[in-house]
Design goal:
Strand content: 15-25%
Low-confidence stretches: 166-173
Mean pLDDT: 84
Shape: extended
Oligomer: single chain
Bound molecules: zinc ion
Strand order of the largest sheet: 4-3-7
Number of helices: 3
Distance between the termini: 86 Å
Radius of gyration: 34 Å
Number of domains: 3
Helix content: 25-40%
Structural class: alpha+beta
Length: 176
Amino acid sequence: MAERTKVVRCAENGCSESTFYTYRTQREYAEITQRQAQRPYKCTRHDTPDEVLRPDNTERTHVLVASRVPFMGRRGGWLPGLFWLEEGRDSGSGFTFGPGFKAHASDFPEGTRLVVTARVEMPDPAEDEARLSGALALAADDITPDPDAGLEAIRARTKSAAADAPASADSTPHQK
Ligand SMILES: [Zn+2]
């Protein structure tokens, strides 16, 4: 059987996001259906909505602790090195990263807390307006010549036009 796809909509009411799963056999299709029944697909906005930064949710802080992890074998003991664990969890990674940082848990003493904060700073509408009018004033400066400099240029042009063609000097627009 060729590979086929099953499109699944986000389980949140009214959400149109979707994903798809591929399957080759009826058994794989049944597995997808069963998994969806147990834990329906939700999109990145609706899977963990508290974690989604929004204009009314502008800051998130998450803490990982450099911890030892027990070795899950018959011998017991600990896995070598340290791992970044969420509080209350017993599995994690020895290395973690996000935009602008990377951290190896074993570079720190056990118990080190990695505090990751993400904060959005939206533009202040009043500041934005001030910036915009500032930019407009600058642009106006660019296109409005210094009146004196302009007059000089006109006089110079008029003079040379008069020298080149004295008869037509009076009809140049610069004369006005
Ligand atoms: Zn959704």
